[in-house]
Amino acid sequence: MSFNPMNNSSEKIAVITGKDPTYPQDSDGATTFLRNYLRFLVQRGVQADIYTTNCYSGDAVSKGKMEHAGQEGEFSGMQVIRYAPPALALPTYKDDPKGLKFLNRAAISFAEASYFADGKLRDYVGVQILHTSHAIGLVLGDVVPQKRTTIFPMMLGEEYRRYMPVAENFIDLEREVFKQVGIIQAPSHDHANTLRQNYSVPPSKIVTTHRGYPQDILLPRERTLPQDRPVRILSANMVRPQKGQHILVPFAEECRKRKLPIKIVIAGVNGESYSSHYNEYHQIFLEEIRKRGLTDSFEFTGPKDHQELNELMLASDVSIVPSVFETFGKSALESMATGMPTIVFDDVPSFKEFMTHHETAMFAPRSPMRLADTFELLTHNKDLYEALSRNGIYHGRNFSWDRVLAQMVDGINTKLHENLSI
């Protein structure tokens, strides 16, 4: 059997996700990927049904989630189906040293699978599941055509473990899912290595393709060093442990000691997540800023859509992406590609797949002092600052969404063809 399901308008695919692509304020990496991916499928004439839950986020009930939904107009030929799986009485954990809350995700996933128990997903030419948490019930509940199913894990349990506890039973469920499903998409070679080494996924199942950025919205501009004003530092990520914003507090303190005037702008969800763990991290972050007398050095904007983010980026001078871990690194790519000199930490492998130290970005050792050293070097060296800006724009042209998604879709189609020929 030979066909290219994502090049064929006579067939339809199903996309299953916990995100709503019509919610414009959500610029989270998963939602950004989903939105651009759906636009790309529309351009190719592919029809799709997008299934998204309307009462759960992560490992918790999400009240009022539907209030954020928008219109599907830009996704011509696609239908967003917002469904409600059975309500569950989920346990809450004030202290969770074993990561048991991840088992809530598995329970929610099996509840989601009950909605598809009538076999509707088997009528699609392909099924694509965004995030392993949703895949657990769908795959192990046997409601998807496994050879025709692609999983986009987004974050693996072993990756969450780098900064928070995860129940071993949850990781066992992930392993079983990857054993049964046909195709797994990885956004970086580091992510693919984790799949191979920690989950024993054979390379033949993995399609590795980097992510992109919206060149028509986030506009490139060659930068020059600011004069006679504080340097505006943008850190555009949700406030959560993975993103590592806590290191910006002692960094700001070190800048104050060195008489380096700065304003750190934090753009993204802060303190209003479904996760009590993330919200607690945000509260500790705020308290540290207050205790050290650094309130005037920080500005919190809340979440921004891409148009608003573009304006914020054009008004900023340097991007610092302090992430502890990334499966790829959307924010770092966006700042680099738009010409904003960017500093990242050198212990995040995925950054090294699309950035080069002293050419398109600056890599700093993970310490407040060394971060301040790197920042001071960058902002006191006109030639280096302007070279990073130029080089980032030039290199970023390789990461248009159209280009990377074409590579990804072709890779998935090839795997689908191989799976159905066996």
Can you describe what's shown?
With 422 residues, the protein is α/β, with parallel strands linked by helices. It has helices spanning 29-43, 101-115, 132-140, 157-160, 168-180, 189-199, 248-257, 276-291, 306-314, 330-337, 368-379, 382-396, 401-421, and strands at residues 12-17, 47-53, 56-57, 60-61, 78-83, 126-130, 149-152, 183-186, 206-208, 231-236, 262-267, 298-302, 318-321, 342-345, 362-364. The strands form 3 sheets. The chain has a 7-stranded parallel beta sheet. The chain has a 6-stranded parallel beta sheet with strand order 12-11-10-13-14-15, sandwiched between helices. β11, α8 and β12 (298-302) form a beta-alpha-beta unit. α3 (132-140) crosses α5 and α10 crosses α12. The N and C termini lie close together (10 Å).
Number of helices: 13
**N-C termini distance:** 10 Å
Main β-sheet, spatial strand arrangement: 5-2-1-6-7-8-9
Residue stretches low in confidence (pLDDT < 50, at least 5 long) are none
Q: Give the number of DSSP strands.
A: 15
Roughly what percent helix? 25-40%
Largest sheet: 7 strands, parallel
* General form: globular
How confident is the prediction overall: mean pLDDT?
Answer: 91
Radius of gyration, taken over Cα atoms and rounded to an integer in Å: 22 Å
The structure class reads alpha/beta
> What's the order of the H and E elements?
EHEEEEHEHEHHEHEEHEHEHEHEEHHH
Amount of beta strand: 15-25%
Question: Strands, helices and their partners?
Answer:
Blueprint: E1 12-17, H1 29-43, E2 47-53, E3 56-57, E4 60-61, E5 78-83, H2 101-115, E6 126-130, H3 132-140, E7 149-152, H4 157-160, H5 168-180, E8 183-186, H6 189-199, E9 206-208, E10 231-236, H7 248-257, E11 262-267, H8 276-291, E12 298-302, H9 306-314, E13 318-321, H10 330-337, E14 342-345, E15 362-364, H11 368-379, H12 382-396, H13 401-421
Parallel strand pairs: 1-2, 1-6, 2-5, 6-7, 7-8, 8-9, 10-11, 10-13, 11-12, 13-14, 14-15
Antiparallel strand pairs: 3-4
